Amino acid sequence: MILLAIETSCDETAISLVKRIRGKNVRFEVLSHKILSQVDLHAQYGGVFPALAKREHAKAITQLIAECLHEADLLVERSNSYHIPNTERKKLEAILEREPEMFAAMKVLVEGIQKPSIDAIAVTEGPGLPPALWVGINAALALHTVWDIPVYPVNHMEGHIIAGLVSQVDGVYEIGEMELPACALLISGGHTEIVHVPKLRSYKVIGKPKDDAVGEAFDKVARMLGLKYPGGPEISRLAEQARKESIVVREELRLPRPMLHSKDLFFSFSGLKTAVLTRVKNIPEMDEKTRKMLALEFENSVTDVIVAKVKQALYETSAKTLIVGGGVSANNHIRFALKHLAEAEGSSLFIPNRNLSTDNALMIAGAGLLHIANDERPRVKLVAKGSWSVGDC
Ligand code: KG4
Ligand code: ZN
Questions:
Q1: How far is the CA of 327 from the centre of ligand 2 (A)?
Q2: Taking Cα atoms as reference points, which of 216, 206, 210, 154 lies closest to residue 185?
């Protein structure tokens, strides 16, 4: 079976085509995998601008699907002229009512090629920016209408869990076996969550932020330091340089470790962000060395808090496995610290390759295949669920 996966929850338009391989675990081959990032466009606003994200997704998605089909050798052009039958055309028009440009592109695609041998579609239904989510959902519903392919809605955060669990050997991807129960740490631009995983498809959020998500804090602090969006990789780069140069953080630039000793699984990064702002305001002139110190101290603070909370969560849930996912899991220092923690606690660690840490459609494909392997039902009534918790998916 071949599955098309669509991800548009934030600022990446991502499409993957995968082929399921029969076997005990969920295993698949990747036929095509593409990500179109809008990062440079949003950089001028210092963050993701939802209306712009929606417009860019709508502009790009049909072409990206066509490119993936082509790469996967699934695109066969029609030799004769074909027009979508009237009833289907009307349905398509209704689905893409608010995206006339996308309707036109879809019509050209569907009328120009033969129905590809795709057996299922997996699409991110939430959480994320609703206008952006709608583009992916509507693309999935449009293809469902014209090609009669079942659609499986996927929770983006479950996708990040799956990205952590997927391993690749000789081109075959597999959702690995793990000792249960597990704990998942999900750290991204919109989320900081610790999730208890007694088994796959069964998730309970046990740790969350009182305010900003960790990626959001990285991005905002980066902005204070005059670094470009997204700030995570920028801060990480400066902090690494500071470590290499053995820079010692000046006393007045030290930062708190918020909620470190709170004995619960809540995070709060807003105070840390304000602490950085206060330091920045007290500096007469920001030089490169000071910037490195603040980046280093911020990254260390976040890492200390994350490690302490995860350690407590592993203890509270008696988890044997730690799964990590989300854009911030691309951070070298945090990766290293979590590896160290897992070793010390005797837990196995599942962490995505850096290219699967940030948003992509492969993780949505993996989650979709998992739902199918579990005999779950497809759905046609889809709505963008901006704040859909992984605990309810
Ligand atoms: O998972 P993701 O791609 O999108 C969301 O679902 O939010 O995460 C994006 C976040 C951004 O806040 C970005 O700054 C952060 O991940 N990020 C990093 C690194 N790479 C990306 N944060 C810290 N260190 C990194 N190397
Ligand atoms: Zn994400």
A1: 6
A2: 206
